[in-house]
Amino acid sequence: MPVHPLWRPYELADLDEVAKVRVGAPPPRTIEVVPYDEGWPAMFEAIAGRVREALGDAVLSLEHVGSTSVPGMAAKPVIDIDLIVADSADEAAYVPKLEAAGFTLRIREPDWEEHRLLTVLPHTNLHVFPPGTPEPQRHVMFRDWLRTHPDDHAAYAALKRELGARGFTDGMDYNNHKAALVYDLYERIFAADPAHEHDPQPRPGSDP
Hints:
alpha+beta, 5 strands, 39% helix
């Protein structure tokens, strides 16, 4: 049975394991979901400019991802950016330069696509990956799907607003509560991708 090359099994994040990859203690913050802000694309461009100024030709790709990249989408007021560099494991090649530009290293995940996460104010998550890794490609597919499928856009926004009213303080716990719908949306995305075959892979407990 063929599955899309970017497919992943349905699973929730282990919050204890997540705590182990954090670098330092992030400032506590209650998760808030707000209406779409027309200023978010400009915020992305401003932060992207800082990254390009800091790293120059080391920037292979910068993408605005996450809900703030989807026009009209309710979202946490946090700009998510995927940065591709030649080797995200080589922190010496880029972390000091980003720190000099005001970024702080928050997460180091060598066992998960060599992901690194840095943050900077105003609220921005800069995700760093090496070329060819699946997660940034998944992010772009998810973003582009929500930009062009109003029903799924509305369903995802409604769930986010409902979860935003619960007072979560852990972002991964919040993400776990979105995980079922996110998985189901990816199933639709992969099934509709003309470049790859994908047999349905229903998550455990979902309707057949």
